[in-house]
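Standup notes
- DV: blocked on the single-chain target, sequence here:
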Amino acid sequence: MVDSETQAKQKIDAGGPTFTPIRTSTTYADVVFQSRDGMRFSIHRTNLETHTGGFPPSEFKTLDEVVHLTEDAVTMDLLFQFVYPRRLPDVNMMCFEFVFPLAEAAEKYEVFSAMYARTNRLRTMNLNQNQTLKTITFGGQHDYPEIIGRLAPSMIDVPLAGILNIFYGMGK
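- DV (later): unblocked, structure below
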């Protein structure tokens, strides 16, 4: 059986993003997160507090519990890089397979710098029909009309009922 760190490395080696994984000192980190595939991330709560809006402030203690997340290790490793003062991953070099889960996680946990970086990437990517539909739906759910506007012409053949389902999610 292959462990989650090896699986994440294999996924990256198979054409995924290149980046320096988050490796923090567990001695000084305040909170431990675990991805759905078992990788643990020791993160400094102060960084979460200053760079995100989706994690509780430092006054809330985790009592040394591991916080389980629904995202995979590659996505969380990319996302957590946006909460540290370091060179950020170049999302412009990433394929849709990595940008879209990063976009969803950035919205979910309100990692502001990641939200900005991935929105720019989603606006400029060449997408197939399925990716376009997912991206327009994402734009509708998270109120990004500029993404919808750029991709709208490619949706001319989508039935009206499908378009209405997308826009129903805007503003929620």
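- Follow-up: The longest helix spans residues 96-109.
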